[in-house]
Every structure is written in C-alpha cells, then in structure tokens.
Amino acid sequence: MDQIAKDTESLKLGDSSSPSSSTTTATTTTHGPAPPPAPPSATDNNNNNNMDMDITSMLPELPPGRRTHNYAGMTLEETVADLKTHPLFMTELDPAAAEDNEELAALQALAYEGTPRENAANFKEQGNECFREKRWLDAKEFYGKGIAILVGEERRRAAGGRRRVRKEGAGTSSSSGGGAAGKKGVVVVLDAEAGTRSAGPDLSDDKEKEDEEGQKRVGNHHPDDDFEEVDDDPAEVAAEQALLETLSVNRAACHLELRNYRSCTVDCAAALRLNPRNLKALYRSARALLAVHKLAEADDACARGLALDPANKPLRTLTHEIARAREADLDRRKREDERLAREKLRDTLLRTALQARGIVTRTTPGRRPPDMEDAQIRLSPDELDPASGLVFPTMLLYPCHMESDFIKAFSERESLEQHFGYVFPLPWDKTGEYGVGSVECYVENARGGLVKVGKKVPLLKVLSGGDVPVVDGLLKVFVVPRARAEGWVREWKEAKAKQVQ
C-alpha cells in the first residue's frame, strides 16, 4: 500500500495547475493558427527503432535452407512459388522437380531409414491408423508401400541376391572419415522398388568426385564402402513374409470397403500363397467373390476356411448368405428359362398361324423397324393359344393431306369400315372430304403396285394369298378422298416409274 501511495504521489494526480495551464493554452490557440509540430527528439527516434527491432524479433524465422535466400528482387508470385519447393509448403509434387530437391530427398530418406521389415512395419502402422479412421484410400496406399518394400526383398532373394547391410562400426564415428552416416548430410535409404539400401543425397559442402565407374565419391570415401553383402537370416526372412502376409490381407480389406473386388481377391491370393491357412484371406476373398456373383468360387473359399476352423462365426454366416444367393440365383434362372420357353412357343405359334393363313411378312434390309412400343403382330387374346386370332399394327395414311392415324391392333376379322366408325370425322378435315362413304382405300402389293381394298372386306381376306405383304411388322393403308383418288393413283404410278428408271 505504501508503494501505491508513492506511485500516486509521483504522478501528481492532485496537482490542479496542469489542467488550468492546459485550459489557458487551448483558449489562446483558438484565436490564431496552430503552432507547427515540434521536431522529433533523439529519444523518440530511439524508441521507434527499438519498437521495430522488437517486432522483427517476433517474426518467425525462415527454414535454415532459406535464411540466406535473397527474396528482395522477387515478386510475390515468385516468392510463393519458391517457397512451395520446400516440403513444408508443398501443395503438390512434381516428379521431375523432386529428383533435384534435397530437402524432399532428406524427408523421403527418413521414411526408409531402417531394415526393410522395419520400414514395412512403419507403413503398416500408418495404414492401420487410417483404417481405424475409415480412410480406406489412404490406408490402402500405406499398405501398398509396405508391400512394395517386402516384394522387392522377395524378388531379390528369388534372383539369388544377398542382403546389403551396413558394416559393423561404419559411420559410428565422425573421426573415421569413411562412415557414410559419419559424413555430414549423408543418409541411408531403402529403395522401395528394388528392396535394396543405398546412400542418400550428400548435403555437405565437401566437393563430390566421380570414380572410373561414374559413381560419386566424397573426398576419398565411396558410399558403398560402408556396406557389405551377407546371407539372409532365416528368422528375418520368415518375419518379413509374415508381415507381407498381414499387409496383403489388410490391403484386401481396404479393397473390399472400396468395392475393388477383383483387387481384393488378388491380395487375398497373395496372402494365401504365403499361408494357405489364413482365415482372414479366405473370408475376404469369399466376400469379394460373392459380391461379383461368383457363387461357386465363394462357396469353395468358405469351405476351405471352415475346414480349418469349423466354428468360425463370420465364415458360417457368409456360408448362409452364399446359400441364399444360390437359391435366389436358381429361382432367377428358372424364371428366365420359363420366359425364354414362353417366347419360343409364342414365336412358333405365330409363324404357324401366318403360314396357315398364307400371310407374308417381310423385313427391309438395313432399315430399323419403326418404334411402335409394345404394338406387334401377335395372337390375341392369348398369344399361347393357337385358336386365337391375329392382330396387326396398322397405319392409316392420308397422303393428300400428309396426315396419319395409328391402329395398334387391327384384327384379321375386322374391316376398315369398323375402324372408320370411330376415326371419322377427322379433326383437321375442315371441308368434310373424309367419310365412310366418300373415301377410297388402297394397299401396296408385293410388286409395288396398288390394290384397292373394300371398306367392308375383312382384313384376313386382304392379306391372305401373299399378294399384300406386311412390311417391317406394320400394315399401311392409304385413305384418299374419292374426288382425288384418280389423280393420286396416277401420281403414284408416275413416281414408281421414275424409281424403276
């Protein structure tokens, strides 16, 4: 409290002379121009400089590799583009530019530092984390990286190659001068494709030299001097294969979630080649095969799994699903067979009915049949009853007025007059030229000529004998006003004559 009192007294809060003097000054300046501002003192300049220094010290530092970079003459776009070449600021990776990017190479090397099994196990853990979060695509990629490492080791062993390892004590002391790890900036990486270890990029200031084989040296040291080839440890090989089996099964699970069923079966097959008793591989393979409706193969995979573990609940459940799918498939096939049998019988009965009546049908080569929806030549009312009558889709054409009407089912027992009863009067016939007693009807015969049809004649009589074919499943009848019939017939014959010429 005593200190607060002293501070208050030092501020002279009770001094009334200062406000009164300020008031007096303010009153005086209202009657004249304002005095010029006082020039900044040396103390003010020092305070400003100290403030700038404080703000600068608060700014984050650039990465070590960028501290000496000169951005003074660069535009904003150029600066951003340059920063994006650093792994911390990258938004996309250009494979061509990545080869010369030392920072990126160093980060990539860290991911492959260690034995092949350790690297693959690291990718497996990352994949498992993504899988738990249901990030199937990311998990698949991580599992794939681990698989690529171990498959490279398998190929190396199959080709008779030996494992390349660091010599004991190599690179443990910087004074030796020959250890790869002892040199500044040299890291050991694992080639994911070939499964071999190699020296990473040299980020030191030492000058590089090339030997007679064109390989780079740092001083008198060659990166290969730190490594030797040894025989594979059977225990390590077994551990790698077990890990490869697990990675393959895990990636198969990702493919199953992503509905990449073929890829799922491929990964399961790879796991089963390593271990035919892998129940997860059998289950996921069966699940994928069921999804693509390969029921026999799915049932076989389940049977192999249950032979190993008869009490396996997922496999037993999947077996019931396959059985239900098989029953549904049998029902579907049965219905399809019945449908095909009905269609075959229907076509047979239709051909027999047309032949018995002497009716000819013809298809125009190279021409699509007209779209008549479900209208077609058929037996009616029952297509599977030989006693049913024939019906024909029929087009009534009015060539003098370029109009038409469509009759979906013209029975062989009906005449044109019966249909004219509901067709006439025509809505567009303003002069009343079309009526049952004022029109003439024609059909085209097999030779391209016209045949006059009586309006009271049954259709069967018109079509029987084969002189009037039904072309492309559609019967065409020309309806012409009697007053214009003679002229229209003449024009028809002239047009046909020109076509012959």
Automatic annotation (TrEMBL):
GO annotation (BP), single: protein folding
GO cellular component labels: cytosol; nucleus
InterPro entries hit by this protein: Csn1/TTC4_wheel, TPR-like_helical_dom_sf, TPR_rpt
Gene3D superfamilies found in the cross-reference section: Tetratricopeptide repeat domain
The Cns1/TTC4 wheel domain, residue ranges: 382-492
UniProt keyword annotations, A-Z: Repeat, TPR repeat
Record's keyword annotation contains Repeat: yes
UniProt superkingdom: Eukaryota
Repeat found in the keyword field: yes
GO molecular function: Hsp70 protein binding; Hsp90 protein binding
Feature: compositional bias, Acidic residues: 203-213, 225-234
Region (Disordered): 1-68, 158-182, 196-234
Record SMART domains: TPR
Biased composition (Basic and acidic residues): 1-12
Regions of compositional bias (Low complexity) in chain numbering: 16-32, 41-54
Family note: Belongs to the TTC4 family.
Protein name: Cns1/TTC4 wheel domain-containing protein
Source organism of the structure: Chaetomium strumarium
